[in-house]
Write a structure and sequence with these properties.
Blueprint: H1 5-24, E1 30-42, E2 58-70, E3 73-82, E4 95-106, E5 110-117, E6 119-120, E7 128-129, E8 131-132, E9 137-138, E10 141-148, E11 154-165, E12 168-169, E13 173-182, H2 183-186, E14 196-207, E15 220-231, E16 235-244, E17 259-270, E18 273-283, E19 326-338, E20 350-362, E21 365-370, E22 375-380, E23 386-402, E24 407-419, H3 420-425, E25 433-446, E26 451-464, E27 477-487, E28 491-501, E29 503-506, E30 509-512, E31 515-526, E32 529-538, E33 541-545, E34 548-552, E35 555-565
Antiparallel strand pairs: 1-2, 1-35, 2-3, 3-4, 4-5, 5-10, 6-7, 8-9, 10-11, 11-12, 11-13, 13-14, 14-15, 15-16, 16-17, 17-18, 18-19, 19-20, 20-23, 21-22, 23-24, 24-25, 25-26, 26-27, 27-28, 28-31, 29-30, 31-32, 32-35, 33-34
Length: 566
């Protein structure tokens, strides 16, 4: 996707003319944007598995967004630089150039975008174009998007284009349409005014040239989704069903089964109490614009995860990623605030939260096998049946309390079951199942109006039901001790140690495998600018955001991050 110099010059001239125009006519337009620079200096550290360092020693990821608005028009671009990509990011990002550029016209009735764009239909089960910078994930569309609002309550969206594939475009052409209908905005008096009913429908078609292989591969693949939602003053209920016609490709092991997904969400909330229940079933919904794409490349859709998105460091040692080819999941969450001025609530009240999620395999039986490659080309999977294998189970309980104007505490207990073979090894037997118990204590004390100290103590106990077969630096028990000192609103100081300890049996001897991952960082914030620097070790493992993961290698060294917006 590297753009030619002429494109950069053309955009520069446009923005230069726009800038001059806005200075002469200050009410006519404005500039906005942001930039970020992340850099890391690497040191060799055999003890944690960082045996090699890049020849450059310093790697960096950077981007710069610039947007110009003039009445109903908007134009913008993003310049990116990976020289070279920080370890853990796909090396195909190596290089620099304009990766994202667009022009948009907006009115009361119609919006038109030409160039790059992001979009999502419904919950994203058949189409979601988005960016997640932490993961190095960007499947932006390059084409045309039209959004039409012919009457109040009805929004129609049409898209056509190709997906970003690092600095190039994927081979497949993606086309689609979506309709969002707010029924109660059009049909008045249907339900009381405090309630609303929404309906929606989406369709996506992918085209990729047929190729001559041992399989007959369709050039076109169609997917559609239907959704509805009812929203009231104390509850929400919504559902979406998606269907994808047969789409054999590398990531689903050339399965000819159709894909199906069902998502159900329900929540109830009243003063001091919130209850949420989420269910989904996913079967063969790995949907890509290019047959040979693997990992996180060229995904057309997104399946919302049904697990709690953890923020504590030890709760992310074993994170779960959504299994697009098949999973059944359920999640329940309850939050409750014990009222103020009660025996357990105290002066400020006490917050309780409970979350439970479980993800299991779908129940399937192969009906047609590729005996040469040991693949199930077709299988039978009863819709309302689950398999015996548990991919992930997570139970969380937290109690948070403000004791006085200075002191706040939060105590958390987490119990997890994690199938490493499924998440990290594509189902092949290697690691077995990991079971963990995690206890976390967080204490925040306000020394003065501007000075605050916060501490965390975390411990993870782990057991594994099979022996590891190779060097593995995420196995064993963990202890984290963290201290953070804040001088509001500008200065932040942090220091922490992740301590991994266990005994490894090797050649009849017991070896102490204790490892410390010491880190320290400093951050300065001024208005919309933030600068942070630090030094320390990074453990190897998975980094997950929203159910999508990338592998992060072990590293040791300095890091720098600068962000700003204007």
């Amino acid at each position: 996707m590297k753009r030619s110099t002429s494109v950069l010059i053309a955009i520069g001239l446009f923005l230069g003319i726009g800038s001059a125009y806005s200075q002469v006519f200050p009410d006519a337009g404005r500039f906005s944007g942001n930039f970020q620079v992340d850099a890391q200096y690497y040191q060799k550290d055999n003890e944690i598995g960082a045996e090699t360092v890049p020849e450059e020693k310093i790697l960096s990821n950077s981007f710069f967004n610039l947007i110009y608005n003039l009445n109903s028009f908007e134009v913008g671009f993003r310049y990116e630089s990976y020289l070279g990509p920080i370890s853990g990011f796909d090396p195909r990002y190596e290089g620099n150039g304009i990766s994202y550029r667009y022009a948009t016209y907006r009115s009361d009735i119609i919006d038109i975008t030409a160039g790059n764009f992001y979009e999502q239909f419904g919950s994203g089960m058949i189409f979601r174009a988005y960016e997640e910078r932490q993961l190095g994930y960007d499947n932006a569309m390059d084409g045309v998007k039209v959004k039409l609002r012919p009457v109040d309550g009805l929004t129609l969206t049409g898209i056509i284009g190709k997906q970003r594939n690092f600095w190039d475009l994927g081979k497949g052409l993606v086309r689609g349409a979506d309709a969002e209908f707010a029924l109660t905005d059009v049909v008045t008096g249907l339900v009381p005014d405090e309630y609303s009913i929404n309906l929606g429908a989406s369709v996506i078609s992918k085209y990729e040239d047929s190729v001559s292989t041992q399989y007959v591969l369709p050039a076109n693949t169609l997917a559609y989704a239907l959704r509805t939602g009812i929203f009231g003053p104390s509850f929400n209920v919504d559902a979406e069903y998606a269907y994808k016609y047969n789409d054999p490709h590398a990531s689903n092991r050339y399965s000819y089964n159709p894909g199906q997904a069902l998502l159900l969400n329900a929540s109830y909330f009243t003063r001091g109490l919130g209850v949420a229940l989420n269910l989904h079933r996913v079967d063969n919904m790995d949907f890509r614009s290019e047959r040979g794409a693997t990992s996180n490349s060229l995904l057309i859709n997104f399946i919302p995860p049904l697990t709690k998105q953890q923020t504590y460091r030890l709760a992310t040692v074993y994170p779960f990623s959504t299994q697009l080819n098949g999973e059944v999941g359920a999640q329940a969450e309850i939050t409750y605030k014990i009222p103020k001025k009660t025996l357990l609530g105290g002066k400020y009240g006490t917050n309780l939260s409970f979350n439970f999620s479980v993800i299991k395999a779908i129940d399937s039986t192969a009906t047609m096998m590729d005996t040469v490659n040991h693949r199930a080309l077709e299988y039978d999977a009863p819709f309302f049946s689950t398999g015996d294998r548990t991919f992930f189970r997570d139970l969380n309980f937290a109690i948070e309390k403000k004791w006085n104007k200075e002191l706040k505490t939060k105590f958390t207990y987490i119990n997890q079951t994690y199938d490493r073979d499924i998440v990290e090894n594509m189902g092949a037997a290697k690691y077995g199942q990991v079971k963990t118990n995690i206890a976390i204590a967080e204490i925040q004390y306000k020394l003065s109006r501007t000075n605050t100290i916060r501490t965390e103590i975390q411990h993870l106990w782990a057991s594994q039901d099979s022996a590891i077969t190779e060097q593995d630096y995420t196995y064993g028990n963990w202890l984290v001790v963290l201290a953070e000192y804040t001088i509001s609103p500008s200065f932040y100081f942090s220091v922490w140690d992740e301590f991994n300890y266990f005994d490894e049996e090797k050649y009849g001897e017991t070896i102490d495998r204790s490892l410390h991952y010491l880190n320290a960082s400093f951050a300065y914030v001024h208005e919309a600018t933030r600068v942070s620097i630090g030094y320390g070790r990074q453990r190897e493992g998975l980094l997950c955001v929203g159910g999508v993961c990338r592998q992060v290698p072990a590293s040791n060294g300095f890091f720098l991050s600068v962000t700003s917006s204007f």
